[in-house]
Amino acid sequence: MVSDNVLFCTELIGLRVYDTRGRRLGRVKDAALVPIINPARVDRFLVGGGWTWLTVRFDQVRSISLDGIYLRDEKLTPYHSDEYMLRIVRDLLDQQIIDALGRKVVRVTDVTFQIKPMEGHTQLDVLEVDIGMRSIFRRLAQGVIPPSWVRKIQKPIGPNSIGWEYCNIVEPDPQRRLRLNISNVALEKMHPADLADIVEELGPDDREAIIETIDPEVAADALSEMDVDIQASILESLETERAAEIIEEMSPDEAAHVLAELEEETSSEILEELTEESKSEVSELFEHRDHTAGAMMTTEYVSLPENATVQDAIEVLRQDEEMLEVLNTVFLVDAEEAPVAAVPLAKLFIAPGSHPLKDLAPDTLLRVTVTESENRVTDIFDKYNLLTLAVVDADRKLVGVITADDVISVLKQK
Question: What pLDDT is attached to residue 2?
Fold first, then answer.
């Protein structure tokens, strides 16, 4: 049942506006928020009366109902476009928005307002955006069936709405985003895979707007979950400095894969903006042929001398806690930097600090060369149920590792 203190946009638009003596001034053509002042309150009503539109401020309204809007103040001014306004009909109705709670892109078909009597005036606050069949029915019936009848007829249809606080407006213009005070906090809290799904549903301009304005680390994580064609399209649309910020947050192997999909000129420009360390790591990976272990591997791993202890490993890991999010193996190397053992990270927690790491490693160490085919690599992972595989160069030196995630990415592309 629809409450008496609720008003839909389909009911608001066309609602008559009366002055203090009950004379009709015109009908509501649109309503606008000024998010930088109040993100939910309708700040202005745009009223059409003849050849011009008038602006009614929220504090000039005495009462609002299906019968009309009655004013308490008649000092109205002609409407002038304001870049700080978010207009409901023009900017929100029929537009795509992001449902941050449901983690999806939806199209707005109606808007629900709450009528709030205040001291001396009555205001409207945006309560929800409506996206279901009930709101579609209201749109179809708008201006054809009296609103009171529409409310009765729609009762059997279940509502489908999103709370205004969970809506994220997609606005490609970065300057307008600032003026409208559009925040991406809710998007940045999403799982990267969910954010990637959302971005992939948007058009090119809207994709760029999201990736351009979210935290670079979040953008990097989300891009890593997208198809390579979309990754390339987004990065090519960004300013070089912004693209480099995002690439900098990626693992070297992911960065190399993405840059390999770009035009050579674009890729070179982005590489020039990276730090020397990142540029060196990514450039090394560029040297390997496609569909080989060298192209699959990452250069982010932890290696220690073969005589290292559990305490040595713990000290190294403490220096780079971010590595713990992706690390599951510590490698031991000899004096020539050849891998001699791989110690599962979990075993560090069951041995005393003085215990030699080598004693915790399995008897057999599997490894591949940088030139090994990706088909052979995936076969090895499948046969031995591996999480990590060492990669060595022609001199048998450890130069990288391949993880199960890298193998999954290859299989997805196939």
Answer: 59
Alpha-carbon distance of 70 to 16, in angstroms, equals: 9
Q: Give me the residue label for tokens 């050579």.
A: 264
Contact status, residue 5 vs residue 114, Cβ threshold 8 Å: yes
pLDDT at residue 327, rounded to an integer: 85
Q: Are strands 6-8 and 329-333 parallel, antiparallel or unpaired?
A: unpaired
Distance in angstroms (rounded) separating the CA atoms of residues 25 and 30: 15
The pLDDT, as a whole number, for residue 414 is: 64
Strand partners, 42: 33
Tens digit of each residue's pLDDT (9 = 90 or more) over 207-258: 998 999 899 999 999 998 898 889 999 999 999 999 999 999 998 888 888 8
Given a contact cutoff of 8 angstroms between Cβ atoms, the answer to whether 330 and 305 are in contact is no
Cβ contacts of 388 within 8 Å, gap of 6 or more = 328, 329, 342, 401, 402, 403, 404
pLDDT > 90 in the chain, percent: 64
Of the listed ranges 167-181, 260-274, 330-344, 387-401, the one predicted with least confidence: 167-181
- In words, the CATH class of domain 6-165 is mainly beta
What pTM was estimated for this model as a whole? Answer: 0.75
Q: How far is it, in rounded angstroms, from Cα 228 to Cα 283?
A: 19
CATH 3.10.580.10 for domain 303-413, yes or no, is yes
Query: Does domain 191-287 bear CATH number 1.25.60.10?
Result: yes
pLDDT at residue 3 in the model: 67
Are the C-beta atoms of 223 and 196 separated by less than 8 Å? yes
Q: Are strands 367-369 and 388-392 parallel, antiparallel or unpaired?
A: parallel
CB 380 within 8 A of CB 368: yes
> What's the CA gap between 329 and 187, in Å, rounded?
32
CB 348 within 8 A of CB 270: no
The per-residue pLDDT for range 193-203, each reduced to its tens digit, is 999 999 999 98
Q: What is the DSSP string of 139-170?
A: HHHTTTS-HHHHHHHTTTSPP-EEEGGGEEE-
CA-to-CA distance for 110 and 343, rounded, in angstroms?
58
Question: Domain residue spans in the chain?
Answer: 6-165, 191-287, 303-413
